[in-house]
Write a sequence for this structure.
């Protein structure tokens, strides 16, 4: 690309004063530029918001779930040995035992099914963040032999109980008596309420002390061990390594397997939004084609003169590619700047829009995540910018090729 081609290409991006046809062509080019900028900005903001939702969802799930679970088949009799083997891996930071079972919780005339997890309160905070989501009471209030219970907020609300109320747990395992098999019942005192912000946990999870759970379900040992890693994204690799190292009969599942449906749904939504908004960028980019075709038609005499002065078809093609690509570059840069600025300030812009128009995007009474989270990632910005530039460049190929094929003699015949 020579300075001559660059100079002529840049000259064609500006209309001559008083030239209505050139002004119209420049107007179409300006609209194309604005369309690209709008599409790029929208794509960056939407991807950032989808990343934010994914991060928020992952944070809330992992505040209750663990990075890796080592579950015994049927139980772990020597969980301390399993924990020591796991902690020998430097990527494993903490381990905590648990007992898992099902129960029907009853308070007055209300019954609700729930997952009951027996935990060691002293170790639980090292593998999960549920302690930071306590609304009333604390995990430390669970004492061995005291038969206390911590309920999810929705579960407590459905049962109509609060602190110091009594809840009866009815387990599936029956007690054999001379009168027949009777359900096993045990009364628990509510010592805490947590709220994660996910209905699955808030409405169906109850926590009790590990020793109490062993007595309630008559478990020898524990159900399994929960592990926390220094890097949650390394969980699949670490789980495969521990599966070879742990000698006990156990099943290892990492968080990407235990809650795959949640993350797959968010990933599919993100991918579909990316495709849809990329099509918007493509439509704006291909507006460049119409502007370029009109410009080539208008500039046929100029092209012919340049050819007679020695310009090659390749030089003519480069001139018009420069003119079209410049529209894409400017539009992309404006869109990237606007998209990054908006993505970084979603928490300020969205509330301002809601106050200005009196609307609510995410009603707190319906959605647990009532704010639009945003997680701007450099990779997304680079990908969006590269796609927009590539589409703009592709849009210039046909008009530039047409310009290079102009016959000088035919173009100057009536001049």
């Amino acid at each position: 690309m020579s300075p001559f081609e660059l100079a002529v290409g840049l000259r064609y991006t500006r209309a001559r004063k008083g030239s209505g046809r050139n002004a119209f062509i420049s107007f179409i080019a300006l609209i194309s530029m604005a369309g690209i900028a709008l599409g790029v900005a929208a794509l960056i903001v939407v991807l950032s918001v989808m990343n934010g939702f994914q991060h928020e969802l992952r944070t809330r799930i992992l505040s209750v779930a663990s990075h890796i679970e080592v579950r015994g088949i049927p139980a772990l009799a020597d969980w301390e040995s399993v924990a020591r083997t796991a902690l020998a891996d430097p990527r494993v930071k903490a381990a905590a035992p648990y007992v898992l079972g099902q129960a029907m919780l009853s308070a007055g005339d209300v019954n609700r099914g729930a997952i009951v997890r027996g935990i060691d309160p002293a170790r639980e905070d090292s593998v999960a963040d549920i302690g930071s989501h306590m609304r009333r009471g604390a995990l430390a209030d669970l004492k061995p032999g005291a038969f206390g219970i911590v309920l999810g907020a929705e579960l407590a609300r459905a049962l109509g109980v609060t602190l110091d109320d009594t809840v009866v747990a009815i387990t599936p395992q029956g007690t054999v008596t001379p009168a027949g098999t009777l359900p096993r019942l045990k009364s628990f005192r509510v010592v805490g309420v947590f709220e994660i912000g996910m209905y699955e946990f808030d409405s169906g999870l109850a926590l009790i002390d590990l020793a109490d759970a062993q007595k309630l379900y008559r478990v020898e040992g524990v159900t399994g061990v929960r592990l926390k890693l220094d890097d949650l994204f390394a969980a699949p690799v670490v789980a495969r390594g521990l599966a070879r190292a742990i000698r006990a009969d156990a099943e290892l599942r990492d968080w990407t397997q235990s809650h795959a449906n949640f993350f797959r749904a968010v990933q599919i939504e993100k991918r579909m939004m990316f495709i849809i908004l990329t099509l918007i960028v493509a439509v704006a980019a291909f507006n460049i084609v119409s502007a370029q075709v009109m410009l080539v038609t208008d500039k046929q005499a100029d092209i012919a003169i340049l050819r007679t002065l020695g310009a090659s078809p390749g030089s003519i093609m480069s001139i018009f590619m420069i003119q079209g690509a410049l529209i894409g570059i400017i539009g992309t840069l404006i869109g990237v700047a606007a998209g990054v600025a908006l993505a970084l300030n979603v928490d300020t812009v969205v509330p301002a829009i809601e106050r200005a128009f009196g609307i609510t995007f995410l009603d707190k009474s319906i959605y647990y995540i009532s704010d639009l989270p945003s997680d701007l990632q450099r990779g997304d910005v680079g990908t969006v910018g590269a796609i927009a530039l590539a589409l703009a460049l592709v849009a210039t190929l046909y008009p530039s090729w047409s310009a290079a094929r102009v016959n000088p003699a035919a173009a100057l015949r009536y001049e």
Observations:
- The mean pLDDT is 82.
- The chain has two domains: 3-59+262-412, 66-258.
- The chain is about 55% helix and 20% strand.
- The first helix runs from residue 3 to 12.
